[in-house]
Structure formats: C-alpha cells, structure tokens
Amino acid sequence: MKKHLFPPFIFLAVFLPQLVFAQAPAIQRVEPTNWWVGMKNPNLQLLVYGKNIGSSTVSLTYPGVRLKKVNKVENPNYLFVDLDITPAAKPGTMVLTFANGNNRTPYRYELRRKSHQPLGVTPADLIYLIMPDRFANGSEANDKFADMLDPNADANNPYLRHGGDIQGIINHLDYLQDLGVTALWMTPVIQNDELLKKEGPDRMQAGYHGYHFTDHYKIDRRFGGNEAYSQLSKALHQRGMKLVQDAVYNHVSDDHWFYKDQPTKDWFNTWSSYTNTSHKEQSLYDPHAAPADLKVMLDGWFTPFLPDLNQRNPYLANYLIQHAIWSTELFNLDAWRIDTYKYNDMAFMNRCNQTLLTEYPKLLLFGESLVSTPAGLSYFVKNNLNYPFKSNLPSTLDFPLFNAINGGLQQNFGWDTGVSRVHQTLAQDAVYADPMKLVTYLDNHDENRYLSVIGDDLDKYKMGVTWLLTTRGIPSLYYGTEILMKNFKDPTDAEVRRNFPGGFPGDRENKFTAAGRSRRENEAFDFVRKLANYRRATPALHSGKLMQYIPQDGLYTYFRYDNNKTVMVATNTTDKEIGLDTGRFTDSMKGFTKGRNVLTDETVSDLKLIKLPAKTAVVLELMK
C-alpha cells in the first residue's frame, strides 16, 4: 500500500493553527489581585489578561463561591469573570481553571477575611499633604531602576524624580505628630512607569507627582512598593493617625498597560481629532447648557498623554470601583481624596461613592473640583439645592474659601473685598448639606505657595493660618507651609514642589529640627503647632457651631462654641492697632467675664474692649 505523506508546508498550513489554539492559556494578569470574604457586596468581577485568553473556558470549584458568567469582549486578550462570593465562603485559595481543549492552566486566587474598619477623617483632624518624591529620601537604593521607562533621578533637576519615598515619610512621623498632624494625605503613590513627558518647548518632565497611573495594582517601587505603603499605614495607625489615598478615576498615562492593549473600543473617550477638556464645569449644572459643551467638558482630555477613561463602560466602571475597595481594605485607608472630580461621569461617581460607603460607612470621601462659587461647588457634593442631578459625595476641597482667604489677605477692606470675602463665602454655607465636612486649605501642590501670595508677610500668614485652624471644616496643610516655604508657579508647578530642606542627602539645612530653622521659621512652626494642638484638644473649636459677625472697618469676629466651651476669634486686618468694642457680640459673649489668650496663655480680664494689634488674629477661650 502506497503511503501518502504531506509535504512540510502543507502540514504547517493545516495543523499549526490547531496546535496554537490548543496551547495552554497564558495568564499575565488577574485583577483585583486578591479579594476578601465577608464583603457586603458579594459580586466580584475579575479582569483576566493574557494572549488570546478570550478563547478559554473557565471553571471553578470552591465552597461558597459561584461562577456566574464569563464575559468576552472585542479584544481576545481579555476575559471578565463574574463571581458570587456568598456569606458561606471561607478564606483560602481557590483555583480557577482556564482551558483550551485538553490544555488547562490553573490559577490560584487568594481570598482573605475582611477586617478593616476605617477611622474616618473628621473636623477634629488636621490633614497634612505630602508629595512623596519631594519630602524625604529614606532609601537611596530605590531612587531609580534601569528597567523602568524613566530611569532618571536627579534632586537638582526640578523636572525629574528626586528620590523621596515612603520610608522618608515614616522617618519623620515624629515631626508630623509634634506639629499636630493627625491624618496624612500623599499625592498618588501608584506606579507611574512612563516615559518623560514633553511639557514645554525645552523641557521633559517625569511623573514624580504620581497622577499618571500605569498599573493600578502596584505601588511605585521608587516609593518602596506595596510593602512600604503597608508599613506606613501600620505606623500611622499605631500612633492614632490616619491615611488618605489620592484617587484618579478620570485618566491614566498613555504608558498604562491597558491603554497599549485596550480591552474594548470604548474603554477610553476618543475623538476624531484631539480634543482637550474645556475645564468649564458650568455646563454640568447650567439649565441652558448646550450638550456639545457638556461632552467636551466631560470627555475631553487633560493632555494628549493622559487618555480620558470612559466610566460609562461597565467593565471599566467595575474595575475602578473594585480597585478602590481593594486599596481601602489592603492598605487600611481612612479616607480618599478624589482628583479631578468634576471631569468624571457623575453617575459613575455616585455609584463608586455609594459602593465604598456601603462597605466602609466611616470612610471620608472628598473631591477636587476647582469651582469659584459655593453654589457651583455644591453641585459636586451633597447639597441643599434643586439640581436635577444629586451628588452623594460627602465632602470636597473648599476652593471658594481658599480663594477668599488668599485673595482677602491681599486686598484692603471693603464691601466685597478684604476679609469681607471670607465672611461672604462662609455666609453661603447653606448650599451644602454638611459644610463641616469640607476640606479647607491655604495652598497645595497645584497652587502658588501661600506665603508668596500674601507678600511674604508673617502677620498675614498668622491670620490666614488662624482662620484655617479655627473656622468650620477639616483643615489641610501643604508640606512646608509650616516652615514658610514659598514660591510661585513660575515657570512651572515644580517651583511650588521643591524638596523639604533636610529630607535629602547632602542638604545643607535640616528644617525638621528647631536648630535647623531660622528664628522666623521657628516662629511660624511654633504658631502652627500651638494652634493645631489646641484645636485638636478642643471640641468646641473643631466640631462646635460657628457664629460669625459682619466685618466692620477691617475687623472680623466669629465664635466656635458647644455646650461646654466658647472660643472667640477676633481679627484686625488693618495696619493699625484697634480697640474692639465687643458690645455687639452679646449673643455669643453673654455671661463671660474674661478669657485666656490661647496663643500667649495670657488672661484678658476685660472683655468689653479688646486691644487688637495691627494685622493680628486673637483666639480667646472665654471664661465666666
């Protein structure tokens, strides 16, 4: 019998595709990387990534866990696996099996016991904002890595990474606690493994600030990685301090792994030609707004290298929300600050907020929306206005009050100028459901340094700090403000993100110590420390009611009070000493005969006429 042999080229053409198809599935990623039993929401959707993983079947046998559905999408390198983790499920390692024909790939997936109970962040706290790369370098060994897209580190170049890390922060927790800080907020620590970005005609900038995510499930190893972040969380909680994480839902870097291989065509908001966001949030709440303006505002990109995420895609929405839950539980978070809040899909944000708060009712969520008026800002937070869309966000950064304090200290007193701006802004608090939860600030990593804005005037500095630490809300202090760091964003933001002196090898000065600070810097530091620690110990000041009186002739007075204590804050914003006639403050001062100056510990025995030196704020604890 004659044998018929296939020529080699026919064998390859006919059988090789079948051999390739039959190869065992190769899994590169499963995210979230682990999960927990005991969650109030039993649903979990796994993103599974690997070459042609979409052709696989999936099976699972684990007590209390049910495989509900396997979702295939346009890109064959993805599967989305829906699981039901019932109350009967126990901690352990379950095995998901991915099969192509007779070839199988088992994947071990860990389930842990949910245990985290956030402390939450409240008006009793003082938040301290740090840009980790610019605060302190605790280990030079992780400054740079040759296998990362940006292998550079140079503390003398304002546009590159400087080497600050999480260990550097841990090394200075004594400093923060002594200052009166109770909660730590860092700009994002999630991996930014990206190429240098062109941000000017003659400069390239690194993602040292952290807002250009490239891998959601990795803390950047230049900061110390997941382990260092967990150690920081533990160290903070051992001190009774709290951890705030910075979220970015709006965009990622164009070097993010899932931008380079997109799961679906609508994973990102795309345009026929590049379209930048307008930044005009009015189109969200304007009853006369054109739909085209709304689309540009929400779906336009921040920059050409920050792809805008389409949170209306259900798989992406689940991915972002589950990452927030994962981070909260794994790193024991107490609060989230949400970057670029107003650019997100609002329905998505409400769903995300509610999912987090259902699991963690004490968690504080506060957004960043640069909106000039209280009415406009209130759209993006729980409010008392009749907007068609109702936000469920508990808190937001108080941009109108920030503007009022900084602008007011630059201006002479008038009907709508000077300290009148502070009074008028607070007078509009009725638009917010809970103005006590708003996060207040004098400067941050995106703004000109506070001291420079007010003309390097130490008296004005103390007035603004006094308002920050004694009015309603949750105060936030930007790193270095307490030691009079200053500068304008000229030519770039890097000028207001300079290194904290003493945090880096070779620094000639160490501002973490009193001996390393100048007399003036110590005066500022001691002022902040005394008032911050008094505030923390005085419920009337941080959580009591606020009653303010209309400013007159540059004098602004308000009271914080509860059933146990009344604190008077009197401010003279003029250039001359004035005697404050307290007769019109009877509603707040009736029955009190003297007071203790909180900042000097002196007793004021006559409350009828209080002498206020020029450009001075006095804080008095009233006594009978």
TrEMBL record:
Residues 129-535 form the Glycosyl hydrolase family 13 catalytic domain. It holds the Pfam family Alpha-amylase. SUPFAM superfamilies: (Trans)glycosidases, E set domains, Glycosyl hydrolase domain. Residues 1-22 form the signal peptide. GO terms for molecular function: hydrolase activity. Gene3D superfamilies: Glycosidases, Golgi alpha-mannosidase II, Immunoglobulins. Keywords: Glycosidase, Hydrolase, Signal. The keyword Cell division does not apply. It comes from the Bacteria. This is Glycoside hydrolase family 13 protein.
